[in-house]
Amino acid sequence: MKQYDVIIIGSGLGGLECGYILSKKGYNVCILEQNHQLGGCLQTFKRSGTIFDTGFHFVGALDEGQFLHHLFNYFNLLDLPWHRLDEEAYAEVVLDGQSFNLASGFDRFSETLAKDFPHQRKQLETYTAFLREVGTHIGNSFKPEQNTSLFEQSAYAYLQRTIDDPLLRKVLSGSSLTMELCAEKLPLYVFAQINSSFIQSAWRLKGGGSLIAEKLTENIRRMGGTILTRSKVTRLIEESGKITTVEYNGEERITAKYIISNLHPAETLTLIPESRCIRKIYRKRISNLSNTQGTFTTHLRLKPNTIHYLNRNVFIHQGDSLWDCHYHPKKKISSALVSFQIPQKGKYTLNIDILTPMHWEEVSKWADTTIEHRGDDYKEFKQRKAEASIDFISQRFPGLKDQIAGVYTSTPLTYRDYTGTWKGSSYGIQKDYNDMLQTILAPQMPVPNLLLTGQNLNLHGILGVSMTSFFTCAKITGLEELVQDLHLFN
Question: Residue 143 — pLDDT band, cuts 50, 70, 90?
Answer without folding.
Answer: low
